[in-house]
Amino acid sequence: MQKWKRSARLVDMTQQLLGKPHQLIPLNAFAERYQAAKSSISEDLAIIHEVFREEGSGLLETVSGAAGGVRYIPMASREGAEELARDLCRELENPDRILPGGYLYLSDLLGNTRLVREIGRVWASVFHNRRPDAVVTVETKGIPLAYSTASFLGVPVAIIRQDSRITEGSVVTINTVSGSSKRLGSLSLSRRSLSEGSRVLVVDDFMKAGGTVQGIVELMREFHAEVIGVGIMAETQVNERLVEDYASLATLTDVDVKSRTIVVEPGSLFRQGGFLYGTDSDG
């Protein structure tokens, strides 16, 4: 097999790393693929790592030893996260989003693949140190955000249903009460969707009082799973909330249906004394 030119090797190696986030790739695998010495592979990886670091798109983590290798850790810079939050706030302040009853139209945002991808990168950056085994969300609007986040973390997605389906097999179901309207409901998750004892990251599009998130936490207890974090695209400002440990990108401080005005500010992820970006630890 003909040896690869370095330029081609760098391009292909970058693609290999981007396609397998958080997955350890042995140096031998690269050496055999490109018919190159490990020293040359190490030099290539140093170049890629420097580019990732300067661009704020991630970093390479090297594991030494016989079973070692390198893994790509996707990251978003704080500046990038702040810019994303500002863009999201501007989008949410559009008065055309106001629907009857004071609800907001969000489907176009969740269909924006660029926006959804960048939100997933931010949540992966914030929570990766907590080592989640899975990303969990509730149907239906949170699904795009969950899959985006999971793709950057290299973990599976578990989707909680609001009704059980025969195609889900054996399910665990709990009853819930909405934090704002006190409306009764239920949440169900297939036993095959999540391994018992998993560390899960909850991702959703919108939160009011937090009744849905609290319901997810209670459902996770049935799986003996630990909720290691909660990422919310946007929240409303309320006096009392059922959950405290969460990170949001945007906070709606006022929605006036009569004057058709929406006031939005960056979310709890950026607030002083709150869940600060970049300060997360193994919790």
UniProtKB/TrEMBL annotation:
Pfam family, one: PuR_N
Name this polypeptide is given: Pur operon repressor
Record text on subunit structure and interactions: Homodimer.
Domain Bacterial purine repressor N-terminal: 5-74
This protein's encoding gene: purR
Phosphoribosyltransferase domain segment(s): 109-247
Keyword line: DNA-binding, Transcription, Transcription regulation
Organism per entry: Salinithrix halophila
SUPFAM superfamilies: PRTase-like, Winged helix' DNA-binding domain
Domain of life assignment: Bacteria
Assigned protein family: Belongs to the purine/pyrimidine phosphoribosyltransferase family. PurR subfamily.
Keyword Transcription part of the UniProt annotation: yes
